[in-house]
């Protein structure tokens, strides 16, 4: 019998050049220090990212030697619609680049399916639908539908099969920071503007 394992405003405008810094890649390996067979219920934080179950209650980390993976549930079975939310510590935006999809068991073919949504301000802007495994083992999935930064990702169980889907090695990018640098000739313009500045009365109570 198969055992099922369950994932200033300013008065004077000064021309500026934006200097971009390199994007910062973060790989979440779910390295929670669990012993073989141990589990850890969400929420879980690693690399500045939080993983929280917002629908359902079965999602957890599972050490399935040699890997520790994210599961949407073991037993009791999860339900369609169970959802795990991923976001950064301070709510900043990020891009979701790739993850490893794990099909447990041997000879299994009928795996769960999941949908992945990227949101900004509560609205869906990116999506990957109907993801499942072709068979047992590990496969890297590039999140090609996630081309723009989002402020959260939601993994939703969309269909229950005979075997679960597990997740490992999720890769994210924190968007490159930009720094404003005055263009050549801008500083004299700024100085001239400041020399001719006038006081403007504040019409609103502070």
Report on the structure:
The chain has 206 residues and is mainly beta. It contains one helix and 15 strands. It has one helix at residues 186-195, and strands spanning 16-20, 24-28, 39-41, 44-46, 49-55, 60-64, 67-71, 83-88, 95-103, 113-120, 123-131, 137-142, 152-159, 166-174, 178-182. The strands form three sheets. Strands 2, 3, 6, 7, 9, 12 and 14 form a seven-stranded antiparallel sheet that branches. It has a six-stranded antiparallel sheet with strand order 4-5-8-13-10-11, with no helix packed on it. Strand 4 and strand 5 (49-55) form a beta hairpin. The chain is globular, with a radius of gyration of 23 Å.
| Overall pLDDT confidence | 78
Query: Structural class of the secondary elements?
Result: mainly beta
Poorly predicted tracts of residues: 1-21, 189-206
> What radius of gyration results from the CA coordinates?
23 Å
Number of strands: 15
The share of residues in extended strands comes to over 45%
Multimerization state: single chain
Based on CA inertia axes, which overall geometry fits? globular
Counted by DSSP, the helix tally is 1
Report the sheet with the most strands, covering strand number, pairing sense and barrel closure.
Answer: 7 strands, antiparallel
């Amino acid at each position: 019998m198969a055992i099922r394992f369950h994932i200033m405003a300013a008065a004077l405008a000064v021309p500026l050049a934006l200097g971009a810094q390199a994007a910062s890649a973060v790989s979440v390996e779910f390295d929670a220090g669990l012993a073989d067979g141990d589990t850890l219920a969400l929420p879980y934080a690693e690399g500045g990212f939080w993983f929280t179950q917002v629908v359902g209650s079965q999602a957890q980390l599972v050490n399935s030697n040699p890997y520790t993976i994210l599961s949407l549930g073991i037993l009791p079975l999860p339900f369609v619609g169970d959802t795990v939310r991923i976001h950064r510590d301070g709510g900043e935006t990020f891009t979701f680049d790739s993850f490893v999809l794990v099909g447990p068991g041997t000879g299994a073919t009928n795996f769960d399916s999941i949908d992945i949504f990227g949101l900004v301000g509560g609205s869906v802007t990116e999506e990957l639908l109907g993801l499942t495994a072709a068979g047992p083992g590990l496969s890297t999935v590039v999140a090609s539908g996630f081309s723009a930064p989002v402020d959260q990702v939601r993994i939703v169980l969309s269909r229950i099969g005979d075997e679960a889907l597990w997740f490992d090695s999720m890769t994210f990018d924190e968007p490159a920071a930009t720094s404003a640098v005055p263009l050549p000739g801008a500083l004299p313009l700024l100085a001239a503007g400041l020399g001719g500045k006038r006081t403007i009365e504040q019409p609103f109570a502070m």
